[in-house]
UniProtKB/TrEMBL annotation:
UniProtKB keywords: 2Fe-2S, Iron, Iron-sulfur, Metal-binding, Oxidoreductase
InterPro entries, per database record: 2Fe-2S-bd (IPR002888), 2Fe-2S-bd_dom_sf (IPR036884), 2Fe-2S_ferredoxin-like_sf (IPR036010), 2Fe-2S_ferredoxin-type (IPR001041), 2Fe2S_fd_BS (IPR006058), Beta-grasp_dom_sf (IPR012675), Diverse_Oxidoreductases (IPR051452)
GO molecular function: 2 iron, 2 sulfur cluster binding; metal ion binding; oxidoreductase activity
Record-linked SUPFAM superfamilies: 2Fe-2S ferredoxin-like, CO dehydrogenase ISP C-domain like
Organism: Chelatococcus reniformis
Signal peptide extent: none
UniProt lineage: Bacteria, Pseudomonadati, Pseudomonadota, Alphaproteobacteria, Hyphomicrobiales
Protein name: (2Fe-2S)-binding protein
Tree of life domain: Bacteria
Claim: Metal-binding is one of the keywords in the record: yes
Sequence ranges assigned to domain 2Fe-2S ferredoxin-type in this UniProt record: 2-77
Amino acid sequence: MARLTINAAVREVDADPDTPLLWVLREQVGLTGTKYGCGIAACGACTVHIDGVATRACALPISALGPEQAIVTIEGLSPDGSHPLQQAWLALDVPQCGYCQAGMLMAAASLLAQNPSPTDADIDAEITNICRCGTYNRVRAAIKQAAAGGAAQRG
C-alpha cells in the first residue's frame, strides 16, 4: 500500500511501487483528467503538480512519492473551472482537440506561481508540452491574459 496526498486528500492505493503515478491517478483513483500521451515524459499530457512543480506523471514511479508531498491534478486546480487560466483558455478558445490541454494548464499554472509576469521567452522555455493542433500562440496569449488577471495568486 502506498499513501499519497492527491488534491488535498490522503489516498491509500494498492499498486506496485514501480507503477507510474499517471496510472495510479487514472486507474486506482479515478482521476482521468490527466492524460497518457507518450509514456516517456516528453509530451506533457500527463503533467501534474508535485509540491507546486509541474511534473510529468507518466515516468514517475509512486515509490518516489510520499504522503507529505502534495500532488495536484487538473481536477484539483479548481473544483468549478474558475481558475484564471481556465477562464482565459475558454475566453481565447485555446483548445482544438483538447487532449493536451489539462497538461498545458497544469504547466501554465506552475509557471505563473513561480513567475507572475512571464515574457514570451519565459513561456517558451517553461511550457514544453506538445500540442499536435499547434495552439501555441493561443496558449501564450491565455497565459498572459491570466497573468494580467492575477492567476499567480491562485496557481
